[in-house]
Amino acid sequence: MNQIFKQVIRKKMTEITPDELLTHAEQYQVALSQAQAVEIIKIINTQKFDPFKKEDLIRMFDHLERITDQATVKQAKIILNQFIKQYNLADWFY
Known about the structure:
Elements: H1 2-15, H2 18-27, H3 34-47, H4 54-67, H5 70-86
Helix pairs in contact: 2-3, 3-4, 4-5
């Protein structure tokens, strides 16, 4: 069953808009500009990251740090970990 949910999450990653990303960033109090959101979406769509693979998460965070800064990446990792714990999804990741 979790394979279906993983597919839904992967699909959502490729369909998210910069405005949606900015809304999520604001919700989690992460500073992100419109230009950064556009660049992040561009990288997500061209690099084809799988958020459930450790190697891809590392690459994704490396790209994010090049676009934003280390503080934003740290915050993104915290948010991801909170999300994983909140929904009891630890076995889906890494």
